[in-house]
Design brief:
Chain lengths: 110, 887
């Protein structure tokens, strides 16, 4: 029933987690996901940006242009208050999901 | 460095974004691609390879375009382009929603069943009533340019109207300039069909030669009448109806040219009408009226004929009426005796045929509309309950990233599925219901036999269903899709925001109000019906068998002899207490000639009355009371002075201060014999029991002094009247085996027929009101059960703190009754406004009859109390310990 949202949800969870502590721009987010997952998870431009825009539209992250001297301006994204709530809920759901999977597979191994 | 901006911009062009938004996206993405490119170069990849690589990532099967399209769609609506990705995507989404919705419905078969059946009742009833409205009111008549067809009637005053005499029609035809064509049509003529096996009495119609061409209808086989066939002395010609042609001649085309013996006269068959041809009363055979011109020849005397005409283009019925009134004024001068004060009324054919049934049908349509609204409110309530139960599911899905749009779409899809199932079942109900209602409807409602579920009806049903789906689905969907995340995700919480509760209460209030309105409408009709049935018709309808004969004999004496012997023979049958014959019978037919009172000055001496030619035993057989003077006796014969008996209305209107006995009346034409008034009898309702048209003079002439071939035979019985029908028929056959007998029925049936239309609208409205009541009760019960379930814990706490079960009962009942009272109050106000529209359908009951209003309000309150009481009782059974532990 929830598989469609699960797939989408996991991607959203990743992004929300990455912008939780500090604002980041798109390229950075993509690179971080790739690096932290040791190359298992990869976002292409075509899926990353629509996702960012959707989260922004929903009000869970907020993007703004940041200008630094000597560099081109960049659009950076930060978690909003509402986003924090969602992230909390998603994390606990995800944890119970993973725990449930572990429990089932763990039992079968035993 | 490649120009990534141009590359990105090229890909966004199809999205038609606002320029500022497009620039921002282009800048952001180009930067990303710049960095990827730079990184690849730094890693030692050649410029060409890096370019190819980055470009491939950007391209990637249209992923970006597709993704952006979905995100940006809501702010930038663009037309749906055939052949773009988006379409397949939409269909995939829809398919997914449908499958998901179907799964949800199957999971809760109880809910689904109740919702679908409720909707099916609402949609089915609406479809059935609309298909009748469609057939009777909306579908154009199957004639050429039917909007230019009118009916012409003569009238003496502003209201009413009657068929003109044939000579008047002939003058109208000669003198008018407003009509393209004008034709007389005499309906309900009867023909004895003999000489071909079993004698049969046929329904017929007499028309002018131009009748069919005026309507724009051609015979299916053979030809139309010729002008020279519409004259006295012409070779008799006849056109058959399709049904009669099928029935008696097996649809054999060679019937053309055959001879039929009708009323002992030989007619040549010249044509057959198509199956779909109808005009007023059904007629097996149609013959030229001019053949019998001498029978219709006396101006100002019956029998008259209806007149139908086709207006010239750009002539309005009003213009035609003005012209016809000028002609009528000329005729009045020319024939003052017969045409005094006669004017003409021109009514559109459609108005004339359906004018009487329009209002009841529209009221019924309105009533089923209300039933559907109530059904919607109920299903909406069910959905709201369900939405509460699914609040957690919704919260989870929102937390996982489902957008509000997705949820609303999903919930609406479920509603649409419900409505589609409901509509499918509803159409089945309507197919059955339409033929059922049509079969229950009284005769005389035009074109009812054509009522069916056609394309227009299906479009109506579709529109109603979609509207229904939105109506009951949207509010719950919007509510449910706005879950409170933190509340919704908490374990065991049965979330119920105040808003949702408010919406549900509002729906129940609305249901109660609408139900009250329907109940009041039905109540008023039932009251009227009871009062109509209580009306004394002036005769005793019980134990009275009636039938009609049309005797073709060359002279009066033979007709009189035939009926004398017939009456004698029938009187000797066991079980018969009295027998009479008459020309004219209440609730059937009677002539309406004018008359003058001899010895009165001409100017104010005008009048008309219903005339019945009756045998001496008629008054005894019918049970009509004599007030003064005497009735007809066997001594009143063709050789004795002509006498008449008048009714009390006649006496009151024309002899207010003098004794009518001994006075003389005669019909206006100079050669009419004068009749002496010998008796006064009670008034008899003639047209219907509600007496709107029939408080008018009636007079009786002696059948023996003026026998008619076309007569009713009345038999008063000591046993069940219809059980004697066969014996009476046998007596007729014994006298003449070729004599057809028709319309054999009891007087009670005839009277019942006259109230059939009233009974019908009353019954339908009552059924709708009962369905509405059941739905409203279900609504109140559901709401209260839910409220009790919600408050289980609160009730448990109260009881733990010492509340008695009586307190709990009061608590719950008060909540439900508050809604009921608000609903009843609103419903009473709405009823006051709505019942005015049905004033014309009521009889001796005011549209705002306080007794009916009060009784219905009390009934509704009592039933609502019961609906609250059951859940309230359940609440008192709450075990405080269990209630507290369960949370």
């Amino acid at each position: 029933m929830l598989d469609r949202e699960m797939k989408k949800g996991s991607a959203e969870l990743l992004i929300l987690s990455l912008v939780e502590t500090r604002a980041r721009h798109g390229y950075e987010i993509g690179k971080l996901i790739e690096a932290r997952s040791k190359g298992v998870l990869k976002f292409k431009v075509g899926s990353l940006y629509p996702l960012l825009y959707r989260l922004e539209k929903r009000g869970w992250i907020a993007g703004h242009w940041v200008e630094k001297p000597g560099e081109k301006r960049r659009r950076c994204y930060k978690l909003t208050k509402e986003g924090k709530q969602v992230l909390k809920a998603q994390r606990s759901l995800w944890q119970s999901f993973v725990a449930a999977i572990n429990q089932v597979t763990g039992l079968e191994n035993a | 460095m490649p120009d990534w901006k141009a590359e990105v911009r090229k890909r966004l062009s199809g999205l038609q974004l606002a320029p500022a938004r497009e620039n921002a996206i282009v800048e952001e993405l180009a930067q990303h691609l710049d960095e990827s490119y730079a990184e690849l170069l730094a890693g030692g990849v050649s410029q060409a390879d890096a370019y190819r690589h980055v470009r491939a990532e950007l391209h990637d099967g249209g992923l970006l375009m597709h993704g952006l399209q979905r995100v940006e769609r809501s702010t930038n609506p663009e037309p749906i382009m055939l052949g773009t990705n988006r379409r397949t995507n939409m269909i995939a989404d829809l398919w997914q929603d449908l499958r998901f919705g179907a799964r949800m419905l199957v999971k809760q078969p109880g809910f689904t069943l109740i919702a679908v059946v409720t909707l099916a009742l609402g949609i089915g009833a609406n479809t059935a009533i609309f298909s009748i409205v469609n057939a009777v009111l909306l579908r154009p008549f199957p004639y050429q340019a039917p909007e230019r067809l009118v009916i012409l009637l003569e009238r003496l005053s502003v209201t009413g109207g009657f068929s003109p005499s044939y000579p008047n029609f002939v003058d109208w035809r000669a003198q008018n300039t407003a009509f393209e064509a004008i034709s007389a049509v005499k309906q309900k003529e009867s023909f004895n069909f003999t000489g071909a096996g079993e004698p049969e009495r046929l329904q017929g119609r007499l028309v002018s030669a131009e009748f069919f061409s005026l309507l724009g209808v051609k015979p299916l086989v053979g030809r139309d009448f010729l002008a020279e066939e519409d004259r006295p002395g012409a070779t008799p010609a006849v056109i058959l109806s399709y049904g009669f042609w099928q029935r008696r001649f097996g649809a054999d085309p060679s019937v053309i040219g055959k001879q039929l013996t009708l009323n002992l006269q030989s007619y040549t068959v010249i044509g057959v009408m198509p199956a779909n041809f109808h005009f007023g009363a059904e007629a097996d055979v149609t013959a030229p009226i001019g053949l019998q011109a001498e029978r219709f020849g006396r101006r100002g005397r019956d029998p008259g004929a209806d007149v139908v005409a086709r207006l010239k283009p750009n002539v309005s019925p009003q213009q035609a009426e003005s012209e016809m009134n000028l002609i009528a004024a000329r005729l009045e001068q020319q024939y003052p005796e017969s045409n005094k004060n006669r004017r003409v009324r021109v009514t559109p054919l459609h108005e004339r045929f359906v004018g009487d049934v329009r209002q009841p049908l529209l009221i019924l349509l309105g009533a089923v509309g209300l039933v559907l609204l109530i059904a919607c409110a109920n299903v909406a309530n069910l959905l709201l309950v369900r939405a509460s139960a699914r609040q957690k599911e919704m919260a989870v899905r929102v937390a996982l990233g489902a957008s509000r749009r997705t949820l609303v779409r999903q919930l609406l899809t479920e509603s649409v599925l419900l409505v589609v199932l409901g509509a499918a079942l509803g159409i089945l109900l309507a197919l059955w219901g339409t033929s059922f209602i049509a079969s229950q409807l009284p005769d005389g409602i035009p074109r009812l036999q054509e009522a069916n579920v056609d394309a227009r009806v299906l479009v109506f049903t579709l529109a109603v269903s979609l509207l229904t789906g939105l109506l009951f689905g949207l509010a719950p969907a919007l509510q449910a899709s706005r879950p409170n995340l933190t509340e919704g995700l908490k374990e065991g919480e049965r979330g119920s925001s105040g808003r949702r509760q408010w919406l549900r209460s509002g729906l129940v209030i609305g249901e109660v109000a609408l139900t009250l309105t329907l109940l009041v409408g039905a109540g008023l009709l039932i009251q009227s019906f009871r009062r109509v049935l209580a009306v004394d018709p002036g005769f005793k309808a019980q134990n009275l068998l009636t039938m009609q004969l049309s005797v073709n004999k060359p002279d009066f004496q033979q007709v009189a002899n035939f009926f004398d012997r017939l009456q004698q023979n029938i009187r000797n049958l066991p079980g018969v207490t009295a027998v009479a014959v008459s020309n004219g019978l209440p609730f059937e037919s009677a002539n309406y000639p004018g008359f003058i009172i001899e010895g009165r000055p001409a100017p104010d001496n005008k009048g008309g009355g219903l005339r019945y030619a009756v045998s001496p035993a008629y008054f005894q057989t019918m049970g009509i009371e004599l007030i003064k003077g005497r009735l007809f006796t066997a001594e009143d014969t063709r050789d004795s002075p002509l006498v008449t008996v008048i009714n009390e209305v006649f006496a009151r209107q024309h002899f207010p201060n003098e004794d009518p006995l001994g006075k003389r009346i005669r019909q206006p034409s100079a050669d009419s014999p004068s009749l002496e008034i010998v008796g006064v009898v009670r008034h008899v309702e003639h047209y219907n029991l509600d007496g709107r048209n029939s408080v008018q003079p009636q007079f009786y002439t002696s059948f023996n002094q003026n026998p008619a071939g076309h007569a009713h035979v009345l038999v008063r019985t000591a046993v069940e009247p219809l059980s004697l029908a066969a014996a009476v028929r046998a007596q007729v056959a014994a006298l003449n085996k070729d004599q057809a007998v028709f319309n054999v029925r009891t007087m009670e049936q005839t009277v019942a027929q006259s109230v059939a239309a009233r009974r019908f609208s009353m019954l339908l409205l009552a059924v709708f009101a009962v369905v509405a009541l059941a739905l409203a009760i279900l609504g109140i019960y559901g709401l209260m059960s839910y409220a009790v379930a919600q408050r289980t814990r609160e009730i448990g706490v109260r009881m733990a703190l010492g509340a008695q079960s009586g307190d709990v009962l009061k608590l719950v009942v008060r909540q439900g009754m508050k809604l009921t009272f608000i609903g009843v109050a609103l419903g009473l106000v709405a009823s006051l406004a709505l019942t005015r529209t049905m004033k014309n359908l009521l009889f001796n009951v005011s549209a705002t009859d306080p007794a009916t209003f009060a009784a219905i309000a009390l009934l509704l309150i009592a039933v609502a109390l019961l609906a609250c009481f059951v859940p309230a009782r359940r609440a008192t059974k709450v075990d405080p310990l269990v209630a507290l532990r369960s949370e």
